[in-house]
From TrEMBL:
Keywords: Hydrolase, Membrane, Transmembrane, Transmembrane helix. SUPFAM superfamilies: alpha/beta-Hydrolases. The keyword Thylakoid does not apply. The chain crosses the membrane at residues 311-331. Signal peptide: none annotated. InterPro entries: AB_hydrolase_fold. Pfam families: Palm_thioest (PF02089). This is Palmitoyl protein thioesterase family protein.
Length: 602
C-alpha cells in the first residue's frame, strides 16, 4: 500500500509540475528568401541552419514553386496563397511560429500574416530590407523585364507575370497604382472602399515586429520603405517617415497600434541591401535566436543576374514598327539553355509585342532548355519548320529575332524549310554564323560524359547527334574533319563544293533586311567576328578575316555578298559581353536604321 501511495504521490507531483509550472518550448521559425533565390542554395541552407543552431529552435526555409524562377515570375498573391497552404500543413507550426524574411520575401510573409485564413498565428516577425511601402522607381537595367516594368507596370500581363510589379508604387501614378496594382494596395489596406479590418486585426496580433532598414540600400528605394516610410501621394518629396504617412496616422493595417504598444522596433544599420555587420546583428536583442546572427548576403547581385540581359530587346521591338496595313508577326528563337516559359523569354516576347504593336510568339522546340543543348540542330530546325508551317498567322510572311545559338535554327528555317512562308526581316543577336573556333566550357549541371565527348570527339557521330553546339564548332586546325563529319554548319553555309545548293542561297537572298549584331566584349562566341560571318582562313588561327575577305563572302556561297551589295546587310558592333547592349548604343546604332526602313511590301 505504501508503494502504491508513493507512486500516486509521485504521479500527482509530476502532473502538477507539468501543468502548473510555465514550461519554455522553443517556437519554430520559417525563413522566406528574397527574389532570385531558392531554399536549396548553399547560402540559404547555411542561413537557415545558422538560425536554428544559434536559437536552439527548429526552423525551415519555406519554398514556393521552384524558388528562383517563380520568385520572379509568379504573382505575389499566388506566392502568398501557396505559402499559406504549406504553413497550414506543417504540424510543427500549429501552435504558432516566427518569421524571418528577406527583401521581397517580406511581401509573402505579410501575406501569410494578413491573408491566410484558419492558419496558426505568427508570433514574432523580423523583416530584413522589406519594401513594405513599395518601391518608387523601376530598377535601372535594360532587360526585357525592366522594359516591361517601365512601360506597362500596371497592366494585367505584367501584374500577373512579374512579381516585383506587385509592389512598385510610382508616386506620380497613384490612380493607376490604386486601380490596377494587384498586391500592395490590398496588403496595405490602401483602397478606402476595400479596407479589411481582419487584415489589421491579424497584423496587430504580432508580439514583435522588427523592421531592419539598410542605410546604404540601393535596391529598395526609398530605403525608408523598409520602415513603411514613403512619399506623399503624387509627389517625390518630401520623404515621409513612417509616423507621418497616412498608412500610419490612419492606422490602415495597425502599424500605429503596434507601435503604441511598444511592439515595433525600427532598426537602421549601415551597409547595402541585406549586408549587416556582426556588431549590428548582435545589437538585435529583440529575438533570442537572432541575437548573435551574422548576415552578409548580397541580393543586389542576384537582382542584377535576374535582370541582366540584353538591352537589344529595345532594338528588336523598334524593328517591327513598320507602317503597313497589316502588322507582320514575328517569332523569337531563344538561345541555348533557355526556354520560352522562362521569365526572361516571356518578358522579351511580350516586350516585342508591346513596342512593335505586332503579334509575336516565342517558338519552342521540344522542352526548350534541355533540347536546346542535346537535340541536334538539324532536328531542331526541322521541328521549327513544321511548327511555322502550321501557324496560320505566319502564312503571309514573318520576321525573326534570334539570340545566340537560336540563330542556327533561324537560318535553318530560312534556308532548309520547304513550302514555308517567307522570312522578311531577320535580326541576329550574337549568332555564331561562321562557327566557333573553341570548344565551349560545359554549363553547370550538364552531363559530364557528354561534355567530355564534346571536348574529345566533337566530330564523331555520337557528339554530332547528341550535343547541339557540336554542329557549329569549327576548329580551324581540323578543317578536313569538320568538312567531312560536321552535320550542320557546313550544309548551312554551303561550304562543301560538291554539295552547294542554290535553293539555300536563293532563300537567304530573299531577305528584305539582315541585321547582324556583334558584341565587342563577347567571351561566349569566339571569335566574336563570327557574328558578322568573319572567321579564320582554313587550317590557321591567324589572321582573323573580316566577313568580306572570307571565301563564304567572296564566292557568295549563301548570298551574303549579294545581300550586302544590295544594301540589305547591316553590320552592327556594340560594346558589352554576349547579349549585353546599353540603351545609348541601341539608339545610336539600331534605331536610326529601323526608323529609315519603315515600309515593305508583304
Amino acid at each position: 500500500m505504501m508503494k502504491s501511495f508513493q507512486r500516486s504521490a509521485l504521479l500527482l507531483i509530476t502532473l502538477s509540475i507539468f501543468f502548473f509550472i510555465p514550461v519554455s518550448i522553443s517556437v519554430p521559425f520559417i525563413l522566406l528568401h528574397g527574389i532570385r533565390d531558392q531554399c536549396s542554395n548553399g547560402g540559404t541552407i547555411s542561413f537557415t541552419q545558422l538560425l536554428s543552431n544559434l536559437s536552439s529552435s527548429p526552423g525551415s526555409c519555406l519554398e514556393i514553386g521552384n524558388g528562383e524562377q517563380d520568385s520572379v515570375s509568379m504573382p505575389l498573391t499566388q506566392q502568398a496563397s501557396i505559402a499559406c497552404e504549406k504553413v497550414k500543413q506543417m504540424k510543427e507550426l500549429s501552435q504558432g511560429y516566427n518569421i524571418v524574411a528577406q527583401s521581397q520575401g517580406n511581401l509573402v510573409a505579410r501575406g501569410l500574416i494578413e491573408f491566410c485564413d484558419n492558419a496558426p498565428p505568427v508570433l514574432n516577425y523580423v523583416s530584413l530590407g522589406g519594401p513594405h511601402a513599395g518601391i518608387a522607381n523601376i530598377p535601372k537595367c535594360t532587360s526585357p523585364v525592366c522594359q516591361l516594368l517601365r512601360t506597362d507596370v500596371y497592366s494585367d500581363y505584367v501584374q500577373d507575370h512579374i512579381a516585383p510589379s506587385g509592389y512598385i508604387k510610382l508616386p506620380n501614378e497613384m490612380s493607376k497604382y490604386l486601380e490596377h496594382s494587384k498586391y500592395l494596395p490590398k496588403l496595405n489596406n490602401e483602397r478606402p472602399t476595400e479596407r479589411n479590418s481582419i487584415y489589421k486585426e491579424r497584423f496587430t496580433s504580432l508580439h514583435n515586429l522588427i523592421l531592419v532598414m539598410f542605410q546604404g540600400d540601393k535596391v529598395v528605394m526609398p530605403k525608408e520603405s523598409c520602415w513603411f516610410g514613403y512619399y506623399p501621394d503624387g509627389a517625390t518629396t518630401p520623404l515621409l517617415p513612417p509616423q507621418q504617412t497616412k498608412l500610419y496616422t490612419e492606422d490602415w493595417i495597425g502599424l500605429k497600434t503596434l507601435d503604441a504598444a511598444g511592439k515595433v522596433k525600427f532598426v537602421g544599420v549601415p551597409g547595402e541591401h541585406l549586408q549587416m555587420a556582426h556588431d549590428d546583428v548582435t545589437s538585435l536583442d529583440f529575438f533570442v535566436f537572432f541575437s548573435r546572427l551574422t548576415i552578409v548576403i548580397s541580393l543586389s547581385s542576384s537582382m542584377d543576374k535576374s535582370f541582366k540581359r540584353s538591352a537589344l530587346f529595345v532594338t528588336f521591338a523598334i524593328f517591327f514598327f513598320i507602317p503597313v496595313s497589316i502588322s507582320v508577326p514575328f517569332i523569337h528563337l531563344h538561345g541555348i539553355n533557355d526556354q520560352c516559359s522562362s521569365v526572361e523569354a516571356m518578358s522579351f516576347t511580350q516586350l516585342l509585342r508591346n513596342l512593335s504593336s505586332s503579334p509575336g510568339y516565342c517558338l519552342e522546340i521540344g522542352n526548350g532548355e534541355k533540347d536546346s543543348m542535346y537535340m541536334p540542330l538539324m532536328q531542331q530546325a526541322s521541328i521549327a519548320c513544321e511548327k511555322v508551317k502550321q501557324m496560320k498567322e505566319l502564312s503571309q510572311g514573318y520576321n525573326i529575332v534570334a539570340q545566340s545559338q537560336g540563330n542556327m535554327v533561324a537560318r535553318g528555317l530560312i534556308e532548309f524549310c520547304d513550302d514555308a512562308p517567307p522570312v522578311l526581316n531577320y535580326v541576329s543577336l550574337g549568332g555564331p554564323h561562321a562557327g566557333i573556333s573553341i570548344i565551349p566550357k560545359c554549363p553547370a549541371g550538364a552531363s559530364y560524359p557528354l561534355c567530355q565527348l564534346q571536348e574529345t570527339e566533337v566530330y564523331s557521330d555520337s557528339a554530332q547527334d547528341h550535343i547541339a553546339p557540336c554542329g557549329y564548332i569549327k576548329l580551324a586546325t581540323e578543317i578536313s574533319e569538320y568538312m567531312e563529319h560536321s552535320k550542320f554548319l557546313p550544309k548551312l553555309n554551303n561550304e562543301r563544293p560538291n554539295e552547294r545548293n542554290s535553293t539555300y542561297k536563293e532563300r537567304f537572298t530573299s531577305l528584305h533586311n539582315l541585321v547582324l549584331v556583334m558584341f565587342e566584349g563577347d567571351t561566349i562566341v569566339v571569335p566574336r567576328e563570327t557574328c558578322w560571318f568573319g572567321f579564320y582562313p582554313d587550317g590557321a588561327t591567324a589572321p582573323l578575316l573580316p566577313p568580306q575577305k572570307t571565301k563564304l563572302y567572296i564566292e557568295d556561297w549563301i548570298g551574303l555578298k549579294t545581300l550586302d551589295d544590295a544594301g540589305k546587310v547591316k553590320f552592327v558592333g556594340v560594346p558589352g559581353d554576349h547579349l549585353e547592349m546599353a540603351h545609348d548604343d541601341v539608339v545610336k546604332y539600331v534605331v536610326p536604321y529601323l526608323q529609315n526602313q519603315l515600309s515593305f511590301s508583304s
